[in-house]
Amino acid sequence: MVQFDPISLRQQFPILSQLANDHPLVYLDNAATTQKPESVLKAIIDYYKTSNANVHRGSHFLSDKATNLFEQARQTVAEFIQAPEGSHVIWCKGATEAINQVAYGLEAELKPNDEILISSLEHHANLVPWQQLAQRTGAVLRSIPFTSDAKWEVEYTSYFTEKTKIFACAQISNAIGVQLPLKQLMLEAKRVKALTLIDGAQAVAHYPVNMAELDCDFYVFSGHKMYAPTGIGVLYGKEEALERLQPLQTGGEMVLKVSLSSTEFNRLPYRLEAGTPNIEGVIALASACDFLMEQDRQAILNWEISLANRVRRILLNEADIKIYSPENSTLVSFVVKNINLIDLNGFLDSKGIGIRSGSHCAHPLMAQLGVNGTLRASFACYNNERDADHFVATLLDAIDLLAE
Amino acid sequence: MNRQEIKSQFNQCHSKEESFRTLVKISKTLNRLDTDLKTESNAVTGCESQVWLVAQQDTESALWQFHADSDAKLIRGFLAIILAHVDGLNSQEIQKVNLIEILEGLNLSAYLTSSRNNGIRAIISQIQQLTTIS
């Protein structure tokens, strides 16, 4: 394990050592996407320099090399999420595609008045595919209302009934950083024999995850939020759950035998991976898993939380600021009374600070909180105290400038 | 604020921060809309911030008068610049005004690339649509 050293860790991210609008770049939009370390960039270049070929097809030197790397990557990801079996790791574009695959794949199993249950904290990616599935099948989409601090607003057990066929929720809310009480939720879902999906997009960069412990049927995440490139993600599933899915896409790679009138599909994981996969992305994602597994992850998590708490403590003293994220999160999500998000964002950007303002693809949650959107500063392993302090100082300047 | 004054204000800006501060300054010159004109039918769609645009054409002179507002100062700054270039013109004249080029000339291009969020391009196309000669 590499001992945690914020200085040397940051140096592994070349993109951060540049000026943005004449100021040192401060990147605090990590919940949207993370930057990539040298090791991941090198894995991409090395792949093209030494191993590029299509996988599972040819039997020649490069094809064997590429296929080996590609299949090893499944084992690396399985190790990363502490899953028993690499063949239950399905490659996809990202969490959104993974959820769409599951929602589409279960369509044949749903009847009118069956229920799909989600939480009110969900990103649209874990809402719209279920809503559309409900519309196609006559099933009903229900949402468990959380208060912003993820306390149960209602006696939640009543939401789980024999009608509940699918329960899907985030591990951590992207908009406000709240962690959902997965243990209880999974128990409830199992009690009513619902299939379960956890959206781990906001978790995997920060928290070690353990598939055996979570015990969900499906777990999805995107590579780009955990130091890997865009366009690669994972659908992990228990074997019997994955077997139940109809493939979202058909075509090359996922077949065993094709005639004009019928097709015999391949076994898992290939059955759910149509077309030439994102080989470069898969290899880079494995490299990002290696990068994280080499680190002292608890030390990094403590660091990220300490930076968010450092910002939070100061913002708590500002009468005009309302914070929606909890303490000990890796992000701070808030609004400033009577000042428009675009204005605050514009000033921060002019000072080289990249954060996110808006609804964070969570319109129902924003409606529940009674806001149009929030400002979100989200931290990653390479951020430092200077980033946090520069952000807070600039935010306070912006408030001075923009207050009526 | 007239076109010349706007130009000289932005000519003095040498960074995005200075441009931002100038936009905020200019935003204060924009006449705010009455609340009862901030209706859905006057809203410019395609903006993440709320923007309203009211256009009136004088029946005799055929000249256009615009009133606009937004809840964001940054956008009000842009509205002040845009209106300074189209207010009091007739349709033919407005169609000839290249607002994008004008904003680029003020070194505000960076704000146009993020137009999906701030809707400046939506405002410009709304003005052009309203004044299209049918």
Short précis:
The complex is a heterodimer of chains A (404) and B (134). Chain A is of the alpha/beta class. Chain A has helices at residues 6-11, 38-51, 61-80, 95-105, 128-137, 182-191, 211-214, 239-243, 279-294, 297-316, 341-350, 363-369, 385-402, and strands at 19-20, 23-24, 26-27, 89-92, 115-119, 140-144, 164-170, 195-199, 218-222, 233-237, 255-258, 263-265, 321-323, 331-336, 353-354, 356-358, 374-378.
List keywords for this structure.
heterodimer, A: 404 residues, alpha/beta, Aspartate Aminotransferase, domain 2, 13 helices, 17% strand, B: mainly alpha, Sufe protein. Chain: A, two-stranded antiparallel ribbon, 8 helices
What are the SSEs and their pairings?
The complex is a heterodimer of chains A (404) and B (134).
Chain A: H1 6-11, E1 19-20, E2 23-24, E3 26-27, H2 38-51, H3 61-80, E4 89-92, H4 95-105, E5 115-119, H5 128-137, E6 140-144, E7 164-170, H6 182-191, E8 195-199, H7 211-214, E9 218-222, E10 233-237, H8 239-243, E11 255-258, E12 263-265, H9 279-294, H10 297-316, E13 321-323, E14 331-336, H11 341-350, E15 353-354, E16 356-358, H12 363-369, E17 374-378, H13 385-402
Parallel strand pairs in A: 3-15, 5-6, 5-7, 7-8, 8-9
Antiparallel strand pairs in A: 1-2, 4-10, 9-10, 11-12, 13-14, 14-17, 16-17
Chain B: H1 3-11, H2 16-27, E1 51-57, E2 64-70, H3 73-86, H4 91-96, H5 99-105, H6 109-113, H7 115-118, H8 120-130
Antiparallel strand pairs in B: 1-2
Helix pairs in contact in B: 2-3
Notes on the protein architecture:
The complex is a heterodimer of chains A (404) and B (134). In chain A, helix 2 (38-51) packs antiparallel against helix 9 (279-294), helix 3 crosses helix 9 (279-294) and helix 11 crosses helix 13. Chain A has 404 residues and is an alpha/beta fold. A seven-stranded mixed sheet of chain A has the order 4-10-9-8-7-5-6, sandwiched between helices. A four-stranded antiparallel sheet of chain A has the order 13-14-17-16. Chain A has helices at residues 6-11, 38-51, 61-80, 95-105, 128-137, 182-191, 211-214, 239-243, 279-294, 297-316, 341-350, 363-369, 385-402, and strands at residues 19-20, 23-24, 26-27, 89-92, 115-119, 140-144, 164-170, 195-199, 218-222, 233-237, 255-258, 263-265, 321-323, 331-336, 353-354, 356-358, 374-378. Chain A has two domains: 6-30 and 295-395, Aspartate Aminotransferase, domain 1 (Alpha-Beta Complex); 42-293, Type I PLP-dependent aspartate aminotransferase-like (Major domain) (Aspartate Aminotransferase, domain 2, 3-Layer(aba) Sandwich). Chain B contains eight helices and two strands. Chain B has helices spanning 3-11, 16-27, 73-86, 91-96, 99-105, 109-113, 115-118, 120-130; strands at 51-57, 64-70. The longest helix of chain B has 14 residues, at 73-86. The chains are: A alpha/beta (404), B mainly alpha (134). Chains A and B meet through helix 11 of A and helix 2 and helix 3 of B.
